[in-house]
């Protein structure tokens, strides 16, 4: 199994993209952010993909991204969308770190502008249900679970020293 990549998973707002930038600065590994790559490839925002092509179409793109990385990518930082561990085996991409955070904390971190980019966070009650459904999936999908309330420097150090 390919364990050279650092794979970040966790619910929306858990800080995967932010932490990937700190990891880049500390390690100079390149970042592959699945949401950014999918949006660029499709030339559409996540909201537009969900609205015009549907969620299933987006999930298929996530599966393809996961398969591609498993086969072709090494020594990179892979920041995943929050739903990816529900649609594919993220461990095939590399060493998986789950950024665990309480729902209340996620809510605090996502400002209105960030919330508006996320179709599955338009209704807080539904997002909370999804959060509960996914907790186990994240834990099972990860090699290591991290307390995402820790500082970026601390998280980055823990990840890089565990490789
Ligand atoms: C999603 C999370 C989002 C994005 C899409 C769906 C999810 O990514 O992939 O809106 O199902 O949890 P972030 O986790 O980066 O917000």
UniProtKB/TrEMBL annotation:
One term under GO cellular component: cytosol
Entry-linked SUPFAM superfamilies: P-loop containing nucleoside triphosphate hydrolases
Residues bound to ATP: 13-18, 118
Pathway(s) it belongs to: Metabolic intermediate biosynthesis; chorismate biosynthesis; chorismate from D-erythrose 4-phosphate and phosphoenolpyruvate: step 5/7
Superkingdom per UniProt: Bacteria
Gene Ontology biological-process annotations: amino acid biosynthetic process; aromatic amino acid family biosynthetic process; chorismate biosynthetic process
Record Pfam families: SKI (PF01202)
Keywords, alphabetical: Amino-acid biosynthesis, Aromatic amino acid biosynthesis, ATP-binding, Cytoplasm, Kinase, Magnesium, Metal-binding, Nucleotide-binding, Transferase
InterPro entries per record: P-loop_NTPase (IPR027417), Shikimate/glucono_kinase (IPR031322), Shikimate_kinase/TSH1 (IPR000623)
UniProt-annotated location(s): Cytoplasm
Binding locations of Mg(2+): 17
EC number: 2.7.1.71
UniProt cofactor(s): Mg(2+)
HAMAP family: Shikimate_kinase (MF_00109)
Function: Catalyzes the specific phosphorylation of the 3-hydroxyl group of shikimic acid using ATP as a cosubstrate.
Record PANTHER family: SHIKIMATE KINASE, SHIKIMATE KINASE 1, CHLOROPLASTIC
Protein name in the entry: Shikimate kinase
Gene designation per UniProt: aroK
């Amino acid at each position: 199994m390919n364990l050279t990549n650092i794979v970040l998973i966790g619910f929306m707002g858990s800080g995967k993209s932010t932490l990937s930038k700190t990891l880049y600065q500390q390690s100079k590994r390149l970042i592959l952010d699945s949401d950014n790559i999918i949006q660029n490839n499709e030339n559409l925002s996540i909201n537009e993909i969900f609205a015009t092509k549907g969620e299933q179409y987006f999930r298929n793109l996530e599966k393809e991204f996961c398969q591609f990385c498993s086969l072709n990518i090494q020594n990179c930082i892979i920041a995943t969308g929050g739903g990816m561990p529900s649609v594919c085996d993220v461990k095939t991409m590399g060493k998986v770190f789950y950024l665990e955070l309480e729902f209340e904390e996620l809510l605090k971190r996502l400002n209105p502008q960030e919330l508006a980019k996320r179709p599955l966070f338009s209704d807080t009650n539904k997002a909370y249900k999804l959060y509960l459904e996914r907790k186990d999936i994240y834990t099972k999908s990860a090699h290591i679970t991290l307390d995402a309330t820790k500082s970026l420097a601390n998280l980055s150090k823990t990840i890089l020293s565990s490789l």
